[in-house]
Amino acid sequence: MGNRWSRKADHVELNFEKLLTEQRLEKERKETKMKGLITNELQLNAENAVNRPDETGKWLKFVVISDTHCQMDQLMEKIPDGDVLVHCGDFTNSGGEEAVREFNEQLEKLPHRYKIVVPGNHDTDFDTREKYRSSASSTQTVRLLTEPTILLDSSINIEGIKIYGSPWVPLCGDATFYVPAGEEMQEKWAKIPEDLDILITHGPPLGYLDRSERGEHCGDADLLDAVQLKNPKYHLFGHIHERYGAMTNGKTTFRNAAQCTLWGKICRLPIVFYMKVPDGNDGSTWKSYTKFEEIDK
């Protein structure tokens, strides 16, 4: 009959070798893509902004936060007024009815006319893929977040400013909003529209505000390709707690708005920027394109 435990050990060893090979190839791919990247650090002004209105016409003030991890109460008094509030994900630690309800109530207290949320990998109830829709309670929890527009691979137009949001981050486990690098992730980013003003993702692209405490660039190489192809004016994200700040490549301004430090303590201010409303815009299309009713099917 042979030794079934030996066969099992061989299988585990083969899988481990395959994983190491994949990690090595991905590291080499990232190193190649990093060569020649333009990564200029931007200084924030007293308003924690990289720009301010400098022309006539109407401007919208964007206030950006991310990775609040059930600690919005510590941030509420520090969030400045504005027109659009953006949260780039991880507003909870692991989802759940109580955490989502509390977050929604906190958003209701803020004065911003428009509110946008892109969930993160910790917001476990919002991944609509079949294997993560574990119970009816998840569906009910999602429906508690009524205050913002939720963007999951979807777009919105606010007074002529075109915005797209997507939550995916490169695979580092079988978990919420994780997708393998390569073809599957490329399919996600292929949905990003042309002629985009603002891209919101949970995680960063490779090379931009993505360096971990260990010095590794943890950003998404496939997302970098998409950003370089589509050239949004702004790319907003969080996920990497260690690298809050702003950078530019000359075409896109990148903002990592993670409020928490690596150790989970909120100690940063929301990030601010301004965008001019286009002349003769078609007005605002203000609704969520996420069809949460499909979760029930």
Automatic annotation (TrEMBL):
Domain named Calcineurin-like phosphoesterase: residues: 60-242
Mention any Pfam family matching this sequence.
Answer: Metallophos
Extract the SUPFAM superfamilies matched here: Metallo-dependent phosphatases
Q: Name one GO molecular function term.
A: hydrolase activity
Q: Which family does it belong to?
A: Belongs to the UPF0046 family.
Provide the protein name: Calcineurin-like phosphoesterase domain-containing protein
In its UniProt entry, the species of origin is given as: Mesorhabditis belari
Taxonomic lineage of the native organism: Eukaryota, Metazoa, Ecdysozoa, Nematoda, Chromadorea
